[in-house]
Amino acid sequence: MKSKTYLIFGLLIWAAFSCISPEEAKKMEVLPYFNLKGLMDLELAKLDGAEVSKISEINGEETTVEKTYSLKEWKEEFEAFYSADINTPALALSYLTETEGEYLIHRLLPEAKGKVKEIRIKYIKEYPVSVSIKTTDKNLFFSTTTIGEFYISQANEKLDHYTLETSQKVWFLDPTHIKISGVVK
Question: Which parts of the chain fold into alpha helices (H)?
Answer without folding.
Answer: 2-17, 22-26, 36-45, 71-77, 79-83
